[in-house]
Amino acid sequence: MSDDSCAVDCDVSNLVRLEERRQLDQISLVASENYSSPAIRAFEGSIFADKNAEGYPGKRCVSGCEYADQLEILAIERAKSAFGCEHANVQAMSATIANFAIMTELFQPSDRLMAMRLQDGGHLSHGAPFHASGRNFRWCFYGVSRTDEQLNYDEVRSIALENRPAAIICGGSSYPRLIDYEKMDQIAREVGALLWVDLAHTAGLVAGRAIPSPFPYADIVTTSTHKTLRGPRGGGLILCKSSFAQQIDRSIFPGLQGAPKMDLIAARAVLLAEVQTSRFQEYAKAVLLNAKALERGLVYAGATLVSGGTSSHLLLLNLLRCGVTGNEVETSLLEARVVANKNSIPFDTIPPSKAGGLRIGSAALTTRGFDEAQFFELGVMIAKVITSASNHARIADLRSFVKQNTQGLPLFNRKWVVGGREAAE
């Protein structure tokens, strides 16, 4: 921010400076947070922010869209290339909006949809009773096994056979393991359902070739553009087979949204070039390695992890055995300048406002440049805060670690910066 920003609006500019200082001085372990690159930020708020481009390329509701058309086509082609899909819609303002748009266009209120239980790792836009999706459609749910807290595909199949859903949604917000898309596809085909993957949390790991892709199995894939994808917040992508292209586009406009935000589409276009570079592939692999290092540190110091660990960027801690709540641990970590979030866990006995678990992730801190040794040490120190009966000294130790390791550390480490030529290629 420029030095004369206070002359424009001192109140807002001061808050921006405070937020920047907070982010620099704290470390974020929130699994749904990340930092976009300087190149991406350069295009957010660009001149395209003022262009009304309601509609789609070649079919706009207003004139003067020749460059907006070229921009959106570029973003679409890059999305198709990045994920190996047949069609892409880049206009959705979030993955949740994308999800609801698909539901309202492809299904009737009488249709039954099937998704992972919220408490077991699903997402609120997958039929939570307090969400519009839950109020407007019929739902059945599958979850994790009590024995290993992982999906049991035989059980998923039994629920699908009993309920015969129109679509099976897989993916969520707090399931730390990878999903076997081939098995889910087999179940969906057996009951005549569409397979819909919500990839919001692991899209960057897929684009970075660090974990398996839901294609060619999925009929439809939705994702946000931040989290592991490391792009601008306030963005959603819908990726699908060509047979659904017309319905998918109609679901966003005119089905649910008005004009797209073209400056964000510009930023998404840059993102979709970045994720196809070798530098981003290195980053995606580092996110996984760092998550495993964090896991080792936590387990070494006595923490309990849901499902025993992680196969992705995300870890979910079971705090019930330690006699503390997610809310209490979240507060203690914040005192140490570590940002995380309380989260319900499978078979939780505590209300969500307090929660029996804590959700953390490795993506944002990997972007800042933390390595495996730092993540291991961080895991040990967090576990000690959780398991210590009197944790004031442990909090102080962790706060000291944060201060020492963030001194002069940027939000986006230079080692992940993608060169213009590599991104263009």
What does this structure look like?
There is one protein chain. By secondary structure, the chain is an alpha/beta fold. The chain has 2 domains: about 40-275, Type I PLP-dependent aspartate aminotransferase-like (Major domain) (Aspartate Aminotransferase, domain 2, 3-Layer(aba) Sandwich); about 280-405, Aspartate Aminotransferase, domain 1. Helices cover about 45% and strands about 10% of the residues. It is built from 16 helices and 14 strands. It has helices spanning about 5-25, 40-45, 65-85, 95-105, 130-135, 155-165, 180-190, 205, 245-250, 260-275, 280-300, 325-335, 365-370, 370-385, 390-405, 420-425; strands spanning about 25-30, 55, 60, 85-90, 110-115, 140, 165-170, 195-200, 220-225, 235-240, 315-320, 340, 340-345, 355-360. Strands 4-10-9-8-7-5-6 form a 7-stranded mixed β-sheet, sandwiched between helices. A 3-stranded antiparallel β-sheet has the order 11-14-13. It is globular, with a radius of gyration of 22 Å. The two termini are about 30 Å apart. The mean pLDDT is about 95.
Secondary-structure element order, N to C: HEHEEHEHEHEHEHEHEEHHHEHEEEHHHH
Q: What's the gyration radius in Å?
A: 22 Å
pLDDT under 50 segments (min length 5)?
none
CATH topology of the largest domain: Aspartate Aminotransferase, domain 2
**Percentage of β-strand residues:** 5-15%
Count of the domains = 2
| Largest sheet: number of strands, sense, barrel closure | 7 strands, mixed
Overall residue-averaged pLDDT value = 94
Gross morphology is globular
CATH class of the largest domain reads Alpha Beta
Q: What quaternary form is this?
A: single chain
